[in-house]
Design goal:
Oligomer: single chain
Shape: globular
Helix content: under 10%
CATH architecture: 7 Propeller
Strand order of the largest sheet: 1-27-26-25-24-23-22-21
Radius of gyration: 20 Å
CATH topology: Methylamine Dehydrogenase, Chain H
Largest sheet: 8 strands, antiparallel
Number of domains: 1
Number of helices: 0
Distance between the termini: 34 Å
Structural class: mainly beta
Strand content: over 45%
CATH class: Mainly Beta
CATH superfamily: YVTN repeat-like/Quinoprotein amine dehydrogenase
Length: about 350
């Protein structure tokens, strides 16, 4: 990974005493849901050199060291389990010298330590996979129009069902089980008491990202033209503890802190306009803002740029990707010594 490619359009950082830039790479090609964190590393489905090759990589966030790289067939959501990485790729073919999304999408399981493929299977009837989830037993993939859910055995890849009545488990502990069925126009989240299997509550709506820490469920959802919100919900009672709006990215949470991209004050979301955005660091319990990392777009945004803003976290390591400028940042966040949250209003 190098930082030699000049990028006339880019995002610069306003100085922040609590964020230290570890490194930045230009020319990184990836996609929404194509990057995750795992044990202090970034798992990336994409390309770090600005060309059309697609690879699956494991990169040490603190040192920028590439631990392994494996060739991949295409882009799609990835899911990181305890020891296994699940990737998806669109079905593609060359038609009149152009790559088009036709054919059958594929799900592949990889050993997280080595990157080696364990199994691979087609998702019939789906040319692309917008949603992928996995538990210890089942991998579930939604087709491009969310018409069907294909369920695969997590260990072997064997098809175990094509059934929208199956609710994939997305979180499980000794108290509560969360299942989520993705569907066109909104999904259905069920919270079930693990021992009794009694349903505690339901949530209807699109979920772009989620995270569970202690007794809190963090939900990120898209509502209107790519702009949504993030909420903290009591895991057992469904009580909403706090909410932020004008969210334009996924949501990351680690070490009792929540990170997400939010539009700066008075900014409007547009695919064709450079957008000033910021990343609040929010206390997961109170919803109070601890710090804010501000980004400023500089230069003329290319017409083909896509506002895919994404953030991931592991402990106090933070990874940020800008799809419009193809920049990948790694930061170290050092919380303020006083740990006194700042006001939640926009800067």
């Amino acid at each position: 990974m190098n930082n030699q490619r000049e990028n006339p359009y880019h995002h610069s950082i306003k100085e922040n005493e609590y964020f230290t830039e570890i490194w930045v790479s230009e020319g990184v090609i990836s996609c929404l849901s194509c990057i995750q964190t795992y044990d202090g590393d970034a798992i990336i489905l994409g390309n770090l050199s600005g060309n059309n090759d697609v690879n699956l990589l494991r990169v040490d966030i603190a040192t920028k060291t590439i631990k392994w790289v494996k060739s991949a067939t295409g882009y799609g959501p990835i899911w990181v389990g305890d020891t296994t990485i699940y990737t998806s790729s669109n079905g593609t073919a060359r038609v009149y010298h152009e790559t088009q999304t036709i054919g059958t999408a594929v799900v592949t399981a990889h050993n997280a330590s080595t990157g080696e493929a364990i199994w691979s299977n087609n998702v019939y009837g789906a040319r692309s996979i917008p949603f992928l989830s996995a538990s210890d037993t089942i991998v579930s993939a939604a087709g491009q129009d969310y018409i069907n859910l294909t369920h695969l055995d997590a260990n072997t890849g064997a098809r175990v069902g094509l059934n929208d009545d199956i609710f994939p488990i997305i979180y499980l502990d000794d108290r509560i089980t969360l299942t989520y069925r993705w569907s066109y126009g909104g999904g259905l989240l069920n919270a079930i008491e693990t021992d009794s299997q009694k349903q505690l509550w339901q949530y209807n709506g699109d979920i772009e990202s989620f995270f569970v820490e202690k007794d809190i469920l963090i939900l990120g959802s898209t509502q209107n033209k790519g702009v949504g919100d993030v909420s903290a919900i009591d895991l057992m009672t469904d009580e909403t503890k706090w909410t932020y709006d004008k969210v334009v990215s996924n949501v990351a949470a680690s070490d009792s802190k929540v990170y997400f991209f939010q539009l700066a004050k008075d900014a409007e979301w547009s695919q064709n306009v450079a957008i000033p955005a910021l990343i609040p660091v929010v206390d997961i319990n109170s919803g109070e803002r601890i710090s804010t990392l501000n980004f400023i777009p500089e230069g003329i945004k290319p017409m083909y740029g896509v506002n895919s803003y994404n953030v991931w976290a592991y402990d106090d390591l933070v990874v940020v990707y800008f799809g419009d400028s193809h920049q990948l940042f790694a930061f170290q966040f050092t919380p303020p010594p006083s740990a006194v949250p700042l006001p939640t209003t926009h800067p």
